[in-house]
Amino acid sequence: MDEESSIIKYKELSLDSGQREAFYKDVKIEITALQFSLLSIFIKSPGQVFTRAVKEVS
Fold first, then answer.
1. Which of 5, 42, 45, 51 is the least buried, fewest Cβ under 10 Å from its Cβ?
2. Inter-residue contact 17 to 5 (CB < 8 Å)
3. Is the model's pTM score more than 0.85?
4. Overall domain count for the chain
5. N-terminal to C-terminal alpha carbon distance within the chain
6. What's the maximum distance between 2 C-alpha atoms anywhere in the chain?
7. How far, in Å, CA of 51 to CA of 53, rounded?
8. Are 43 and 7 in contact, with CB atoms under 8 Å apart?
9. In 3D, which of 24, 49, 21, 25 has the Cα closest to residue 35?
10. Distance CA 36, CA 39 (A)
């Protein structure tokens, strides 16, 4: 794993922001860059309600 990687987790889902990889129950899942960005936002803000007005994805 890259030294600059940051792992964020929510229940059984983990995201490696350095490698931009997603894992569910420790199994790598293939997702698009947009899906990765959205999952990252959702995991970092549990319980937050988002609307379509949120247009910037980091």
1. 51
2. yes
3. no
4. 1
5. 22
6. 35
7. 5
8. no
9. 21
10. 5
Supply 22's token pair: 């997603």
Summarised one tens digit per residue, pLDDT across range 6-34 is 999 999 999 999 999 999 999 999 999 99
Q: Which residue range forms the structural domain that includes residue 58? A: 1-58
Q: How far is CA 47 from the centre of its chain?
A: 15
Question: The domain spanning residue 38 has which CATH number?
Answer: 1.10.10.10
Counting Cβ atoms within 10 Å, is residue 11 exposed (0-12), middle (13-18) or buried (19+)? exposed
Tell me the C-alpha distance between 21 and 12, whole Å.
14
Query: How far apart (Å, rounded) are the C-alpha atoms in residues 57 and 26?
Result: 25
